[in-house]
Amino acid sequence: MNLLQNIMNHNEEFVREKKYEQFRTTKFPNKKMVILTCMDTRLLELLPNALNLSNGDVKIIKNAGAVVVHPFGSIMRSILVALYELKADEVLVIGHHDCGMSALNSESMLSKMKERGISEEIIDTLEHSGIELDKWLTGFSSVSESVSHSVDMIKKHPLIPNTVPVHGLVIDPETGKLDLVVDGYKLD
To answer: Cα separations (Å) of 151 from 4, 34, 111, 140, 165?
Structure first.
């Protein structure tokens, strides 16, 4: 049986046995907070437990490295939706130590793409179209600096009111210990 079929079989049982009832909540975050964090698998249960979060407490946005790359990309749009439509009042950016984005190397990634069937022609076409794959596929060297950069991108966004605290933290993916990088309650 393949992975998808396993998921579908489990889901059928989950619904039939009404296991979903323990997770019922509204779409509005109880703690009025939106979190941008990394998609790292170690954070799936560790992060909510380390922050004392339950289902329904916060909006969580995940991407590689908890990085805001573009001020008008999908990450910022999601943060804006959480703030304006879903009653969040604060933003947390939470990176983590030992992040895969800190070791991301564009040459290695492009090589792996080619191994999986992406042609050199496609890569050349993208690069000739103005997409800087080397830059886009390169990670960061310091998780604290990356978190600070994302906090800064959010705080300085023209559609974010200056009354919205934007905090930056780094979590240890082994212990759950949080290090404060930016206290959003302190004014610059």
So the answer is: 37, 13, 32, 15, 10
Give the phi and the psi of residue 169 in degrees, each rounded to 5: -135, 160
Q: 136: closest CA among 94, 98, 104?
A: 104
Expressed in angstroms, the distance from the first to the final Cα of the chain is 56
- CA dist 165 and 88 (Å) reads 11
Classify strands 166-171 and 178-182 as parallel, antiparallel or unpaired. antiparallel
Given a contact cutoff of 8 angstroms between Cβ atoms, the answer to whether 154 and 69 are in contact is no
Pairwise CA distance, residues 178 & 71, whole Å: 26
Residue of 76, 69, 71, 72 whose CA lies nearest to 91: 76
The pLDDT value recorded for residue 124 is: 94
Structure tokens at 71: 């001020």
Could you tell me the pTM of the whole model? 0.93
Query: Amino acid identity of 57?
Result: D
- Number of neighbouring beta carbons within 10 Å of residue 60: 19
In the chain the domains, ranked by start, together with CATH numbers, are 25-97+144-188 (3.40.1050.10), 105-138 (no CATH)
- Measured CA to CA, the distance from residue 170 to residue 178 in angstroms comes to 6
pLDDT in tens, 99-155: 999 989 999 999 999 999 999 999 999 999 999 999 999 999 999 999 999 999 999
